[in-house]
Write a structure and sequence with these properties.
Helices cover 68% and strands 4% of the residues. With 299 residues, the chain is mainly alpha-helical. Strands 1-2 form a two-stranded antiparallel sheet. It has a two-stranded antiparallel ribbon with strand order 3-4.
Length: 299
């Protein structure tokens, strides 16, 4: 099977959001490497700069007005190998937790909301904090805000979930999240304050996302709705037609609808299950509770 077929298959599956996000970041990184090499050889570096202006998020509000899509595209763009490597490793490790417990749609929602929150913090900081205002116009790229949102969300959902880290050993992810936030705070007065500020925006939205979800409110619904709208737009499906069936078929349809209803898990029950996971871990759940949590992640 060819590489293009593998990629097409990965994106055709509906339960593959984590791999799709990683592949998309990898593809953008690879394309930019190829373009950069081509433009360097052809002595057309200015073209590459123009392309990056269409993808990177500028701290200049006027530039943003001309390139509003960069509020999201910047979160899929990397130029350094180590930058993309560590972001994708963290996305894979912590994204698996979000995907397993909350489902693919909430993972994508967190990624998008993390990018938007990071962008908001970046723009506000450079335009309203005096010490940073001389840097207005500087760009930012990278998935770090989105990845930080996923790390903090996972730590807020399952604070005592343990990772085995090289040399260090077993570490609860709540301490990993704390370390990520502290490192970002310490880096604000370093060489990349804009990037560190986006991390803080992602961290805040990751924390709020889980707290709101436990309160029965899904902050990711608008993201899902917009995604569904674009999906229908590009697929070009014909509008659904309503046809009248004979009255003989009605009882069967009613029975089917009645049968499907109880499968939905009430938000209150999901909250109780998540609280139990926070206290005692995933293995403490009964088979019925695990099934209910899985069904809730698909709603």
């Amino acid at each position: 099977m060819s590489l293009t077929q593998d990629i097409r298959e990965a994106f055709s599956r509906r339960d593959n959001a984590l791999n799709q996000l990683i592949i998309l970041n990898g593809l953008v990184f690879a394309v930019l490497i190829i373009l950069r090499a081509i433009f360097f050889i052809s002595q057309s570096d200015g073209v590459y700069v123009l392309i990056m202006r269409q993808l990177a998020l500028s701290s200049d509000g006027l530039v943003l007005l001309r390139h509003p899509w960069t509020l999201l595209t910047y979160a899929f763009v990397h130029e350094g190998f180590l930058h993309v490597l560590f972001n994708m490793l963290n996305l894979y490790w912590f994204g698996q937790i979000i995907r397993e417990y909350l489902g693919d749609r909430r993972l994508v929602s967190l990624y998008v909301l993390g990018a938007l929150a990071g962008a908001a913090f970046f723009l506000l900081a450079y335009n309203f904090i005096p010490v940073l205002r001389p840097g207005v116009g500087l760009p930012v790229i990278g998935a770090s805000a989105s990845v930080t949102a996923i790390i903090v969300a996972a730590a807020t959902l399952l604070p005592d979930y343990t990772f085995m880290l090289f040399i260090i050993g077993a570490v609860k992810i709540k301490w990993i999240a704390v370390a990520v936030v502290l490192i970002s705070l310490a880096g604000i007065n370093g060489g990349n304050p804009g990037g560190e500020i986006t991390h803080l925006g992602g961290a805040l939205i990751g924390f709020i996302f889980i707290k709101q979800m436990k309160a029965g409110r899904d902050m990711g619904q608008p993201v899902v709705a917009v995604g569904n709208w674009f999906s229908r737009l590009f697929q070009g499906r014909p509008a659904m037609k309503v046809t009248h069936r004979s009255t003989v078929a009605a009882p069967r349809a009613t029975a089917t609808a009645g049968k499907a209803g109880p499968s939905a898990t009430p938000p209150e029950e999901v909250d109780l299950i998540l609280d139990k996971i926070s206290r005692s871990g995933y293995e403490s759940l009964s088979k019925d509770e695990k099934q209910k949590l899985f069904r809730a992640s698909q709603q």
